[in-house]
Amino acid sequence: MAAIAFEHFEDSLELLNPLKDFAPERQRIEVYRDPLLGHTSVYNPAIEQGLKVFLNDVDRDLVARLAHEGPAHCVFCPDRVAGVARFPDDWIPGGTVRVGEAVAFPNLIAMGGHHSVAIVSEAHFLELHEFSPERIGNAWAALRRVAQAAQRHDPNAAWLSMHGNYLFPAGASLMHPHFQMLIGSEPYSHHARLARGCRDYLAREGTPYHRDLIELERASGDRYIAATGRWHWLAAFSPLGSNEIVAVHETDGDLLRLDEGELRDLARGLSATLRFYEDLGHLSFNYTLYARREPARPDGFQCLLRIITRQNPAPDYRCDDFYLQKGLQTELMLHRPETLAAGARPFFGS
Prior knowledge:
Layout: E1 7-17, E2 23-33, E3 40-43, H1 45-49, H2 60-69, E4 97-99, E5 102-106, E6 114-119, H3 133-153, E7 159-166, E8 178-184, H4 189-205, H5 209-220, E9 224-228, E10 231-235, E11 242-249, H6 260-279, E12 285-292, E13 304-309, H7 323-326, H8 337-344
Antiparallel strand pairs: 1-2, 2-3, 4-5, 5-6, 6-8, 7-8, 7-12, 9-10, 10-11, 11-13, 12-13
């Protein structure tokens, strides 16, 4: 465990602050480095003192109007859900998977070899405290059945990730609560870096990184939050997004080796995290759950969930970064680079 080093360093900035009659001020900047992957995160105490510069209040009139108007044209609402895409019957009999309110089906515009969606609730809009463990667990159970079908039919379907984009500041194109799942033969950027980091740590130290991390964090108590079953919840030392909380499974990296009870334990933790985010004044979030098929030899990988807050809904605002960019650090291309180059050439003349 001594191999895990929680490194951070400080810098500072001197300025004359116009909000304080141009009085001299020195701001302290703290930079945290992730022990496994080396990415950095920045903290400035002035952010907490003036948080409203970064976080607007939820525009309740806007949210109420969208929640009222949305069901008239939302394909995820109960009156129209029969029109969603379907799986072939030899994959999923009947074309969709239903568990409670949840409905899982293939994404109409895929971003992976197996790309699925699960509607979380019949309600078009949920406050964060309404993402109950049952609703979350049912959506994950539906996606898990799709993943099992993918594994039966495609031996190369090895890398699995589940995701959530809630509301348009998180990159969601629909307000209606829904989760997504990608399964492919190759991992996307951050998934690959995570797996490589775990493999290298195991080879170097002889123990899995996240198992050591759990023990170290639980012993110190500084960032350890709680356990729900075999999932351990921590505040991320060097987050990839705002207010990041992570959950790590004690031992397993293969989601399909876990039973539904363990998924329900994870759902309890995610539901609790969302209630906490609501208490902080947030309404929009992303999460990514990273998993992969059990390899022939142990590689130190353990299932990991990252959840972050996003900006609150405001008029005329939608972010084009969603789970693909925030959780997988993979960009969505609107055009092939060759097409982009061909279109741009005429503007450069002869």
